[in-house]
Amino acid sequence: MSPTSDDRVLFDVDREKRIATITLNNPAQRNSYDAAMRETLARHLDAVADDDDLTVVLLRGAGGVFSTGADMNNAYGWYGRGETPAKSRPSQRRRLAVDRKSFGFYHDFMGFPKVTVGEISGYALGGGFEMALMTDISVIERGTKIGMPATRFLGPALGSLHMFFHRLGPVLARRLLLTGDIIEAGAVEHLGVFTETCDAAAVAARARFWAEKAAKMPADGVVIAKEAFRLVEQSQAYQGEEVAGYLFHAYGTNLQFAPGEFNFVKTRAEHGTKEAFRLRDEHFHVPEPELD
User: Fold this and answer.
1) What kind of architecture, by CATH, is found in domain 9-255?
2) How far apart are CA 265 and CA 139, in angstroms?
3) What are phi and psi of 104, to 5 degrees?
4) pLDDT for 239-276, tens place per residue?
5) CB-count burial class (<10 Å; 0-12, 13-18, 19+) for 265
6) Which of the two ends of the chain, N or C, has the fewest CB atoms closer than 10 A to its terminal CB?
């Protein structure tokens, strides 16, 4: 039984196979999520973590799209301020309080005690990209668009920096964060960022295959291993990550914009969300140099 009735996050359990499936079900918004959706997702994960009969959680998105991350239709709504005008934006203390809680979700997901499998296709942007990288086993469509485009209007100190550098490597992490580029998963297939990169038609079946394969492992052994993995990562790569993550996100989203720089919140207030995204892409477009 689902621990919540929010139909934007679906929950299904296959007890015979020991697999729970969580589906982000907001396809009209490319499975972007607000705070309520993320809290629902967290409650489902808690239910799986507490269920001794489940070993694997399969995370996916409805409509052939994984997730485009946080819903930016209301940039200040995450801070409990609604459509607050720029002149009255949330205080730094409010940002820190909210971001500490937000990053707690990602920290818990990365250290989740059961096996996490990602079925990733279409788009995996922003927080969706973070979750895709945090899964233990990830199957991604070769043409999936991945990246952190919000860095273009919130600054490069965005997201789980420790995880980007550890999972992507310092060169690719810097490239994506300092440009806001969106690339196709196939472009980094050779780097082994994801467990398996395949064509769109195979993603669902391959993700289910990996979920069933992992679910055959001894349940106690999996939990012990996951805690051991977490200890190794904390000692080798993530020291200070809990503070660094939300601290720099809170500071980095409280920017002052110089003349000529793109201010998404102001542009959105003046032109609407859809036009703000178009103007963002127009502002950041730099044509490739032509070769003689």
Assistant:
1) Alpha-Beta Complex (3.90)
2) 34
3) -60, -35
4) 666 556 656 666 666 677 888 888 887 888 899 888 98
5) buried
6) C
The reported pLDDT for the residue numbered 84 is 46
Name every residue whose Cβ is closer than 8 Å to that of residue 280 and which is 6 or more positions away in sequence: 149, 152, 153, 262, 264, 267
Per-residue pLDDT tens digits for 182-234: 999 999 999 999 999 999 999 999 999 999 999 999 999 999 999 888 888 77
CA 182 to centroid of chain Cα atoms: 14
Mean pLDDT on 81-110: 72
Tokens 């542009």 sit on residue: 267
Tokens describing residue 36: 């309520």
What is the pLDDT, as a whole number, of residue 259? Answer: 86
CA atoms of 93 and 19, how far apart (whole Å) = 40
Among 251, 2, 244, 253, smallest CA distance to 106 is for: 244
Sign of the dihedral through C-alpha 164, 23, 103, 254: positive
Question: What are the phi and psi torsion angles at 176 (to 5°)?
Answer: -70, -40
| Contacts of 49 by beta carbon, 8 Å cutoff, 6+ apart | 112, 113, 114
Which of left, alpha, beta for 31 (phi over 0: left; psi -120 to 50: alpha)? left
Q: What does pTM read for this prediction?
A: 0.84
Backbone angles phi, psi at 267, to 5 degrees: -65, -40
**Start-end ranges of CATH 3.90.226.10 in the chain?**
9-255
Q: How are beta strands 137-141 and 115-120 bridged, if at all?
A: parallel
Nearest alpha carbon to residue 204 among 5, 23, 81, 8: 23
Alpha-carbon separation of residue 39 from 45, 55, 133, 176, 199 (angstroms): 10, 21, 20, 27, 32
